[in-house]
Protein: GCS light chain
Organism: Syphacia muris
Amino acid sequence: MTNWNYRQISDCVDTALSRLDFVFYFFICFDDEDGFWLNNALTLWKNIEDLVYSGKVISLGVADLGFSRVKMLNEAVVRVRPSIYHYNVGDCCEVELRNYAAEHNIYLLTHNDPNLSKLKGKVGEKIRSFLGDDQLFELGWFARYTVWDQSRSIVRSKGYILQFQKNH
């Protein structure tokens, strides 16, 4: 998600559903540089909760936020609390985070992918290398997905789904 726009999230989930059949865990990575982070996140989260109630998504989680933001969001959310925190294996899982997660039924899950909030710059670099100009297209939203064989705990498929908008 490149801005605080629920329409991007809705488009992302609908696109993922059209290709993956269902979304069990839905993680959102909020831009953490905004001074109004919690207000923006809560406004968006209220819409995201509807994805659970509509049956499009089974469970909500957050990715790459850091302990203080996970705690703020969890304690502020009213209807559907984050049940998973997806963090980069390179980041240390603080004891305080582990204890908080255990107390609040938040499942901790690691990944070794690039931080989603930094992916926009990497995509711009790739567009520039392929097309010679990174201003032709703008990244609208992107989703990281993993397809698991749960009975054998094996990752079957992993990748990204990206949506671009052509600049005029």
